[in-house]
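Q: Joint fold for the lines below.
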Amino acid sequence: MSQRALSVSRMTGNRSTFADWYQAVVREADMAEPSPVRGAMVIKPWGYGVWEEMQRDLDRRIKETGHQNAYFPLFIPLSFIAKEAEHVEGFAKEMAVVTHHRLKNIDGKLVPDPEARLEEPYIVRPTSETIIGDAFSRWIKSHRDLPVLLNQWANVVRWEMRPRLFLRTTEFLWQEGHTAHASEKEAVEETMRMLEVYRAFAEDTLAMPVISGEKPANERFPGAVATYSIEAMMQDGKALQAGTSHYLGTHFAEAQNIRFQNDAGELAYCHTTSWGLSTRMVGGVIMTHGDDDGLRLPPAVAPRQVVIVPMLRDKPEDAQVLEFADGLAQALRGQRCFDERLRVLVDTRGQKSADKRWNWVRRGAPIIVEIGARDAASGTVTFMRRDVLRDGDKVKSHALPRDEFVAKVPAMLVEMQQGLFDAAKKRTVANIRSDITSWDALVEYFGAVGDDENSEFKGWVRAPWARPEGAELEAIDQRLKTLKLTLRNAPADQPKSVGPCLFTGKPGVEEVLISRAY
Amino acid sequence: MSQRALSVSRMTGNRSTFADWYQAVVREADMAEPSPVRGAMVIKPWGYGVWEEMQRDLDRRIKETGHQNAYFPLFIPLSFIAKEAEHVEGFAKEMAVVTHHRLKNIDGKLVPDPEARLEEPYIVRPTSETIIGDAFSRWIKSHRDLPVLLNQWANVVRWEMRPRLFLRTTEFLWQEGHTAHASEKEAVEETMRMLEVYRAFAEDTLAMPVISGEKPANERFPGAVATYSIEAMMQDGKALQAGTSHYLGTHFAEAQNIRFQNDAGELAYCHTTSWGLSTRMVGGVIMTHGDDDGLRLPPAVAPRQVVIVPMLRDKPEDAQVLEFADGLAQALRGQRCFDERLRVLVDTRGQKSADKRWNWVRRGAPIIVEIGARDAASGTVTFMRRDVLRDGDKVKSHALPRDEFVAKVPAMLVEMQQGLFDAAKKRTVANIRSDITSWDALVEYFGAVGDDENSEFKGWVRAPWARPEGAELEAIDQRLKTLKLTLRNAPADQPKSVGPCLFTGKPGVEEVLISRAY
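A: Joint structure:
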């Protein structure tokens, strides 16, 4: 079989094909689909299963760093949102507004009941700083109440005019951490701690290499003093902002009167932080690990790590095949990997086994086993590894005696997880250019104004800059826009000295990442 | 110490006190609090922790019965809701309506942007039959696609004019199962299977005895053919509907064109079901197990099953006390109970240890350990059991050698779980009267029209009835309302023959439960 499981290849060298390929994987791997609600998606069981595995792992990391989960209202009174000026400015254009609390049949048509208009409209939360800050202002009285370390798993809504499944949707799922501290030092430490939690989660659990760093001023969260991100390179060379952590200073504390009595008995404003990671990460996993046969899931977040397809033929041997398959599944479930029991499925759906096999290839199940009558009789397990599916164009099949297979699966999954990370890391490192140090060279490399969607694969440029803010930064941002480029972050890991600023020729103060982005 | 941890007692024999007591427990146990959003609550970490334990256990039961989780949009186009006539009739009066997707600053005031008015308003989901039914209509083509067995964990909104924390809130969290089947038989089986899952969850995990049965026609879910519930008796004798499972017939399938090609090649409508259980259950746990010292949590859903309070005095011995406490916690975490590792906390907050002890009593942590310097030196563990906190008025303290304590904790927690269930079961059984068989006797027992809030404790009445529908049922419902009573359900477990109908004197067909209710 040399035909690929998808009809679209990701790698013909231009981005429109990559976008088609992405859509094909999301569809063919049964991850999600558009819904009748503008910009919102339906997350199908296999896609949601990946999110559940992500949640479980990240939730553990969040709790291990001392945070507790809580839940705050979906609705935010309009006046709350308006309290922090930059915050409302940043979100006002994409807010869903609730104005009525009842429907009424008027002249045979169901409409919002004019008599049930809200005095103050509610916003469907785009993020929860203001509604959680309100609770903080009630809960925090003394330094003994600090730090407050909370996290919330929730849905949020930001109206999206150009939606893309998982990457940009009007409604998405995420966790948002919100903390309050007695000092800037503690709050900044918290901000960096959670950035590191995101890095470790992305790299160790999603096998997705990222670069941690601080966003330039124009890319800060509305209302933040500093915003940090992890950025990941997708297979088309674009950057995906994959998680952000914000030091909010006392901006929100001042807007909402979050104060505490310090050691000296004086009232002082809290320093707050927030940090979030969303279902966008599912899109990141697809664009990091997918290939022309569909999705390849890192075993740590695969809802099923081993899928067993019994090849049934409506013949008496079927019973033996099923018995062998079930026994194998049982034995595998007794094994552990990544600190959890193996997740194993016997796929007994009433379809052709070849169709089922290719369905699991497209879905990216790490190990796919096919059991026929001969396998059952001889006690052999024939399987495919999704990470190295083919030898040249041919699908590669492996065979092992049953007990040996059962014993080897955990190590095989760990090896796959590492292999996916290594390949992505190698690709990322190989595609960050540090030798482009002037604006002209940048223009030459990325090509001048043109149709970004059809431009060839380019990676990132890492270059020195003077870290300007205000009008000067705005001017740089505008120049970059003509190349469809953006500033991603200034990596935490910086050289001792840097050359002159790529944009202005002034003395550089740090290196910054420049690239096209999602 | 003979003083109780709460200032309000639940059992002075009238309901206004019980309501005050409930509010006091919710507040003093740090479970939840009202929010600035009308009718919506903030679920605090301890309350949310209980919900997380419930979720984990119920999610496992839902998956073990073959369901998968997925996620559907929060917003529902108004036209979808309007498709099923009874459905929209049932929910129209309590719907939050989104009418705009942007705010705008007009004359210095932030308002919904008139130019961003939605052509078709969206409803914030009060339940998801219609938006999920729409997906079903796209996904289901053939009998080979059936059954579809999905579940969703989500927030829902039903506008609430008289909110009560956990019991009735404008926004609440729940799971909603939605399934589609080829036949009535299979769909009814599914409906009953999930009712049984709820019963087992309530009784085994929440130690909350319930009675499963079918709701009378007037209490059906809007659009359902049949609605089943589990009903639990609270300590004030009122009933709490604690979970419902609906057989929807082909009503929603017809409204949304959910059809499949059957074996014979003909198009047929699917039979669908839905079933849900919400954060209301947290309120049920409080009203089932709480006492005058606060909450008592069933160990299976206690976020912390053992809390260790080191008694620190800012003296050199503190180090030894802390070391002993941490070592004990480590040893306990090596133990398992209810198929999970023990959940243990060492409470090192900077407060007086007596305050911390009482805080954990009010929160209902099953086992509370206090470690002083003498305990650490002698290797003794001094502890309180929250299920049997007192001997008469005095708080009862136990002491065991460390290793013996560690070994005994799992069995102790199992015993507590069973003890809480047994006590609640005994109370429930003892307070269902079967000897009230006429309307006059019912009036005499519950008292005529009066202030329900101040009436004495009454349990439930189980009586024969003729199971009328339509106008006759409506008349009975109105009569019951004069006594502030409702029909709860007709228990699944019925005697072989029943006497005449309590309401009409006609031949009875089954027994039904009558009570006041939340």
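Q: Anything notable?
A: The two ends of chain A are 35 Å apart (CA to CA). The mean pLDDT of chain A is 94.
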